[in-house]
Specification:
- With 207 residues, this protein is an all-alpha fold.
- Helices cover 71% and strands 0% of the residues.
- It is built from 9 helices and no strands.
- The longest helix has 28 residues.
- The chain is elongated, with a radius of gyration of 20 Å.
Length: 207
């Protein structure tokens, strides 16, 4: 029978987890101000820890960036798509409006105001498998959650029956990636008109 960890061991493990969490919080804040290429020294200084403490938890800065993406990405998805307990999506217009609002306000992280530019993310994905894998996991999770929402909206008559929810989830994520890239390049975008066009494409025809 395994003995329970001592009070000292539990305290040491709790301190270790707090250090890791502090480094992730610090990186999140630094990335939001200076982008994903911010230096490791800046992040450690902001967290109040040395490089030695950093390397206890992460192999390199890219591994830390992947951990930040996991944390931030989940929060963004919950904000945009809601959860079963809070702010569920009522219709497709609600979903589009949430994204546009987050994009303009900077709450969506892949914008100039959000702190990480789309080209910076793609460059990081090209050089780091850890960042690329985490980003692709986020993309797939977005598609899966959108597919589930679209399936529910389809049963409510909000979406045409000749589009599979999975296909629509894929195209919505593709649209988001393209839209935030063009927005970052200062392209003038008619958000209201674009939203209406999208809704016309996927909503059932009027009886």
């Amino acid at each position: 029978m395994n003995a329970k960890p001592s009070r000292h061991a539990r305290a040491r493990e709790a301190a270790k987890q707090e250090t890791r969490a502090a480094l992730i919080r610090a990186a999140t804040e630094v990335f939001s101000k200076k982008g994903i290429d911010a230096s490791l020294d800046e992040i450690c200084a902001h967290a109040g820890y040395t490089r030695g403490a950093f390397y206890v938890h992460f192999k390199n800065r890219d591994e830390l960036a992947a951990a930040v993406m996991e944390r931030v990405g989940q929060g963004v998805l919950d904000t945009l798509l809601g959860t079963d307990e809070a702010q569920p999506i009522e219709n497709l217009g609600d979903l589009v409006n949430r994204f546009i609002k987050a994009l303009i306000s900077g709450d969506y992280p892949l914008t100039r105001n959000g702190g990480v530019r789309p080209y910076q993310l793609l460059d990081a994905c090209a050089r780091s498998s850890a960042i690329r894998d985490q980003y692709m996991e986020h993309v797939r999770a977005s598609m899966d959650r959108l597919g589930g929402i679209c399936q529910r909206l389809q049963t409510q008559g909000e979406i045409r029956n000749d589009i599979t929810p999975q296909q629509l989830g894929f195209w919505l994520v593709t649209l988001v990636i393209g839209l935030h890239t063009l927005y970052d390049l200062d392209m003038e975008i008619d958000f209201a008109g674009s939203m209406q066009s999208l809704l016309k494409l996927v909503q059932p025809p009027a009886a």
